[in-house]
Each structure stands twice: as C-alpha cells, then as structure tokens.
Design goal:
The chain is mainly beta and 367 residues long. Helices cover 10% and strands 46% of the residues. The chain has 3 helices and 29 strands. Strand 24 and strand 25 form a beta hairpin.
Length: 367
C-alpha cells in the first residue's frame, strides 16, 4: 500500500470484509448441506484480525468461472471460455481460491486451473468456511441417516493436496485458526474414544489422551486454550499441553474475556454430584463459588458465590465474606464488597447497604 491506513479505516475495512465473509459463509452453507450441526465447525467471520485480511487481499483472484449447462450440470471454464472441468454439480468457489463440487456424485476440490487438490471420491467434505486451509474428508457416511451400520471414516487433506491425517475411524472437527501463522488446528477423537489436538502440518500439539476437548478462544489470534475432560474431571490446558487449571472434579471452566494480552477464565466450583453443562449463567443454581484465573494460572479474584453478569451492563456481581461487590469485564474491582443485596431491573440496578437501596449509576458516577 502506498499509505498507511488509519485505525478507523482499518476498522471499517475489517467490518466490511467480515460482513462479506459472513455473507459468503451463509451462501456456502446453503449450497453445501453437508455442513450440519453434527459436523460443526468454528466460524471465524467477524473475529479475524486485520493482519489476516491484509494477507488475503493480496491473493490472486480466482482465474476461472462457473457456468450452468442446459442439463443442470456445471462447468469450470477459464477466463477465455475453455472448459477445464465438466459434469460438475453443487459447485461453489470458496474464498475466491478453491472450487468445491461434486463429480459423478462424489465431492472433491480443485483450483482455478482444474488441478485436483482433493480427488472427487468423498461422500462429504467439511471446511472452516472463512478460512479453507484444509479439508476434512469423509467416506461411508451415506448409511448414517437411516440408522444403518456406521462405517464412516474421516481424514484431513491440506491445501496442497497432501494428507495430514489419513482416513480412519475417527471424528474430526476444526478447533482453531491461527491467523498469524496461517495455521489450522483440529480436534481428533480416535477409535478408542480419546481426543487430541493436531495441527495442519500433521504434528500432535496434544496427543489423544482426553475423553473430550473443546476450544475456548478460537479465532482470537491468541494461543489456543482448551477445556478438557477425563472421566469425571475437567481441566484447562493450552495448545502446547501446558496445564493452566489442573484436572479436578466438580469444576466448570469457561472463557471470561480475551480483551487483554492475557485471556481470563472463569472457574466455578459446582455442588457435589452436579453434571451441569453449558455457560455459567445457565447453571447458577449448581455453582457454589467461583474464581477468575488468567492464562498463566494466576488467581485474579475469588468469589464465595457465582459470578453473575448484570443485565445490560458490562459488570459482574461477586461475593466475599457475605458482602456483594462488582467487577468489570476485565476482572477489575469496580465496587468493593460492601452491599447486602442487589436488584437488577435491567436498565436500573440497585444495591442495598445498611438498609438503604442505592442506585448503581450514582455509586459509579457520583453527582
């Protein structure tokens, strides 16, 4: 670029490109019904940093075009109208880079020159729609819908047409995209039911050793943090398999925020025997106490009760020694614990101290 964009211009460009990506993703999912909730992918549209768009805006535009034929099939032609690939169906150009289509009833991927990246021999192909750096391929999936024997196999082929993970009795999902290194990560559950984290070079970031694994901060541009489960215990680890919050029973872990250099996590202690899942706001009755812990494992704040977000406010209620206080979404204390109770009327919040109900807005911004 001849001039350095201002922050406002960068933000505008990010907003516009994020919107276009979202539109493209929606169209893609309509065109390819195989992207179902049973094979969920992450969706990074709207979360990717400017560095990602600065890189892809320099990509060479797809040098081909799709044409509809009288029989309903499609052709990939070059810009001069010469036919490169014929007898295509359900064809779609992804990220202005790849052609994803069916040929003779099987899915495959090609580039604009017609070079085959993924052979047309798979029952399904799953991609992370905003990125499309790797392709999860499936065979033997046609019998699943009618409850017949599941003989499906999945594998991963990268953008160069090389196998990252060979076809196997495994369940594979996109877990994370690192825009700084243009790198994908996948969770893979093997035939023994153990789950690990694989990168798009074919290296295990975390060997298969957990019963389940869920990414907590995909698409943020920061190192990936994972909620893992082993039998009745849960833990928080990072993509290098370093332990942030050790395995323990009766604990619930979720991302609190990722605004700063170091993400914050909310660790809640559940009542004994609880099997509650979901976000903490939905399982308040199952929570005994809570902590905010940063990505280095440092304790930021403890609460003797659930940490609960106020309606219409970026503030949270916490409790210490029987008194209620407030923190913001960065984990900073806004009001020290000094209140006996509170009432949240959405647009107006009241805090009770020494028998008097006080307006929150007057406490934060005294007149």
């Amino acid at each position: 670029m001849s001039a350095t964009p201002t922050k406002a211009n960068k933000d505008d460009r990010l907003s516009i490109k994020s919107m276009s990506l979202k539109t493209a993703c929606a169209s893609f999912m309509i065109a390819f019904g195989m992207l179902t909730s049973a094979h969920a992918t992450i969706n990074c549209a709207g979360y990717l940093p400017n560095s990602y768009f600065e890189r892809i805006e320099n990509n060479v535009k797809f040098a081909g075009k799709l044409t509809e034929q009288a029989d309903g099939s499609q052709q990939l032609q070059d810009l001069n109208g010469n036919v490169i690939l014929d007898s295509l169906t359900d064809a779609y150009i992804v990220m202005d880079t790849y052609l994803l289509a069916k040929q003779q009833g099987q899915y495959g991927v090609a580039n604009a020159a017609g070079e085959i990246i993924v052979p047309f021999e798979y029952d399904e192909i799953h991609i992370e729609p905003d990125i499309a750096t790797s392709f999860i391929v499936s065979v033997g999936t046609t019998g699943i819908a009618d409850n017949s024997e599941n003989t499906s196999k999945q594998g991963i082929i990268n953008r160069h047409g090389n196998w990252i993970y060979p076809l196997a009795d495994a369940r594979i999902q996109h877990a994370h995209y690192d825009p700084d290194y243009d790198q994908d990560f996948f969770t893979i559950t093997d035939d023994k039911g153990l789950t690990g984290l694989l990168d798009d070079r074919g290296y295990w970031a975390v060997m298969p050793q957990y019963d389940s694994m869920r990414s907590l901060n995909a698409c943020t541009g920061k190192p990936l943090y994972l909620h893992v489960r082993l039998q009745d215990k849960t833990a928080l680890i990072d993509q290098n398999n370093d332990i942030i919050i050790p395995l323990a029973t009766n604990q619930h872990i979720e991302l609190f925020n990722s605004y700063g250099e170091v993400p914050l996590f909310l660790r809640s202690t559940l009542v004994a025997g609880s099997t509650a899942e979901g976000i903490s706001e939905d399982i308040q009755d199952d929570i005994e106490s809570a902590q905010i812990i940063d990505a280095n494992g440092k304790l930021i704040l403890s609460s003797d009760a659930p940490i609960k977000k106020l309606l219409y406010h970026q503030l949270y209620i916490y409790k210490q020694a029987g008194k209620i206080g407030l923190i913001n979404d960065k984990g900073n204390v806004v009001l020290e614990p000094q209140f006996n109770s509170y009432r949240d009327d959405a647009d107006e919040v009241w805090l009770e101290k020494q028998g008097k109900m006080l307006r929150l807005k007057h406490l934060i911004n005294p007149e």
